[in-house]
Design brief:
Blueprint: E1 4-10, H1 20-28, E2 31-37, H2 41-48, E3 53-57, H3 63-68, E4 74-77, H4 87-92, E5 96-98, H5 105-121, H6 123-131, E6 150-154, H7 158-169, E7 173-177, H8 183-188, E8 192-193, H9 197-203, E9 206-209, H10 223-228, E10 233-237, H11 246-255, E11 258-263, E12 283-285, H12 294-312
Parallel strand pairs: 1-2, 1-3, 3-4, 4-5, 6-7, 6-9, 7-8, 9-10, 10-11, 11-12
Helix pairs in contact: 1-12, 5-7
Length: about 325
């Protein structure tokens, strides 16, 4: 494996990565790491042209990049989602795509629950009004008792299951909808299966989104689906911003149909500071931070480097995303 080149790419507009953990692991395996900040598909293609494997953070991987990266065995994605990569096309080009779905389960489920509690207890407006000298317990808006409320979880993967477990521990009843998960798995977790997304939305006091961004799920929370939600309910999104149609959310928050929303993700990131959403007191915003802790950051780096090393050794990386054609890569076992 000596002499192999691994290229780490990241998009602009996010804090620059340290890369030291990846570099140390790859050095120990006899591979060289080079890194690049890529603001365009042309820059990403140029950076990955000679790579034997790529470590990809936020940079979109387009057909141009896949065509140019002819030596590349695998692209290891720095996170759970993979909507920015055409996985099927990559497989056709002989490139495996792997994600790291298990590095931040605790962090994201903690963050979702923290946002839910912040909405229920009006923590952000209470903090802001207190700092203005307004010592008034009613400054938090419409506060609610948690115990006895129902949390509806859209998606039932690792993070959603962990959130459900934590939510039940503080007195929430939990319902879930995921068309790709057998209802028995939900029942085994003491979670009530919903028959449809419509049922989930109409029966829940809080809704938390935990599904991949796909053509099926883009703008799944829109004016029509929001109308199904209970008056005074609240929504949390720690998944992908594209799941929520932001204008419809704004109107529902402004009118009071929704008592609150908490977003760790938005359709355009970094957030557009001109968005009318940011002028609402019943919105909580965090900067795509749900995944992060010192521990998860280190774990992500270790696992990305480890997956790249697997590919360089001729092994299929852990968590390679399954394609319709299946794993047919000429470099396996070489």
């Amino acid at each position: 494996m000596t002499g192999r080149l691994v290229v780490g790419v990241e998009g602009p507009g996010t804090p620059s990565r340290d890369w030291s953990i990846e570099r140390d692991r790859l050095d120990a395996a006899g591979a060289t790491l080079m890194t690049s900040i890529c603001a365009s598909e042309e820059e990403a293609a140029a950076a990955l042209r000679d790579a034997d494997a790529g470590l990809v953070h936020t940079s979109p991987i387009t057909e141009l990049t896949l065509d140019v990266a002819s030596k590349c065995r695998a692209l290891i994605l720095g996170g759970v989602g993979y909507e920015h990569v055409d996985v099927e096309l990559a497989a056709e080009r002989g490139i495996a795509v792997a994600n790291v779905p298990d590095y931040c389960v605790e962090e994201v489920s903690d963050h979702a629950l923290a946002l839910l509690l912040a909405l229920a207890r009006g923590l952000i407006p209470l903090d802001m009004s207190s700092r203005r000298g307004e010592w008034d317990h009613s400054g938090g808006g419409r506060l609610t008792r948690i115990r006895g409320c129902r949390l509806g979880v859209y998606g039932f993967g690792r993070i959603a299951r962990r959130l459900a477990d934590k939510a039940r521990g503080i007195g929430l009843a939990v319902m879930a909808f995921d068309p790709y998960v057998d209802r028995s798995e939900m029942e085994d977790a003491s979670v009530m299966p919903a028959e449809s997304l419509a049922q989930l939305l109409s029966c829940s006091d809080f809704v938390s989104l935990h599904t991949h961004q796909t053509p099926e799920t883009e703008n799944v929370i829109n004016a029509d689906s929001i109308r199904l939600m209970k008056p005074g309910s609240r929504i949390v999104n720690v998944s992908r911003g594209a799941l929520v149609e932001e204008r419809a959310l704004y109107e529902a928050l402004r009118s009071g149909h929704l008592a609150g929303a908490a977003l760790d993700v938005m359709a355009v990131e970094p957030f557009d500071m001109r968005s009318p959403l940011l002028g609402l007191d019943n919105l909580v915003v965090t900067p795509h931070a749900a995944w992060y802790s010192e521990q998860s950051g280190r774990e992500l780096s270790r696992k990305m480097a480890g997956a790249a090393i697997q590919a360089l050794r001729g092994e299929l990386p852990d968590h390679t995303i399954v394609t319709q054609a299946g794993p047919r890569f000429s470099w396996l076992d070489t």
